[in-house]
Amino acid sequence: MTGATRVARARKAARARLAPALGLGAVGALLLAGCAAPAEADADEGALGGTLTVLAAASLTEVFDAAAVAFEAEHPGVDVIVSVGGSGALAEQILAGAPADVFAAANESAMARVVEAGLADETPVFATNTLELVVPVGNPAEVHDLSDLGRSELAIALCDETVPCGAATVELLSLANVTATPDTLESDVKAVLTKVLLGEADAGLVYRTDVQAAGSAAEGIEVPEAAAVVNRYPIAALAEASNSEAAAAFVAFVLSEAGQALLEEAGFGAS
Questions:
Q1: How many CB atoms lie within 10 A of CB 89?
Q2: pLDDT tens track for 73-91
Q3: Which superfamily does 3-128+233-265 belong to?
Q4: Where do the H-state alpha helices sit in the chain?
Q5: pTM of the prediction?
């Protein structure tokens, strides 16, 4: 399979995920808006092109797939590749010289490392998120609140404290005066969710957006204390971006009304 074929199939798969994950209305409007723009406008402004590599926190998986499709509709010459993972690991990749044009992190400390290395300058916050308990459908272990994370008979999955979801988990449990007994510590929030979806964990702590993205495959339990522990998501066009114009345009799209509408529909809070 050629690289072009892989990219085309990835975009087709992303489009297929948009309707159930984010709703037909917002995505349809964005795609129609992109298609309706006159070709002359791109020509006048200088059409963007090439490949745009975006490194994004794992919790942004679904919404950045949607953003990539909408951005490509506005800029048909650009192929957006979104690579997701733990924010800390992505920051390490950038510091090690991995090729990337845009970085979107799940907290400001991960971005700070990139800024301190001189690899990013402006890092506006574009979204917020909070934690929520997630359990298998039917909640067989009868988990009700954070205190249940200390039940020794349960299998508990949490994020490792070195990644944003884990740092938030530590802060939240401390605030609630709960001592958890995790059976596994994962490198990103999607790995925690997967443990629950597979029935390998009775409960986990993930972002509320991950519970929403899981749909009917899992159940979420709101945590009142989580309102006091808010993750702020910064984004940056990287200083060594190989496609700097497209990088700046993608950041602008995420911050725009259209980008913010996608984030809101995915369950993210306003910046």
A1: 15
A2: 999 999 999 999 999 999 9
A3: Periplasmic binding protein-like II (3.40.190.10)
A4: 3-22, 24-36, 39-45, 61-74, 87-95, 108-116, 164-175, 189-197, 208-214, 244-255, 257-265
A5: 0.84
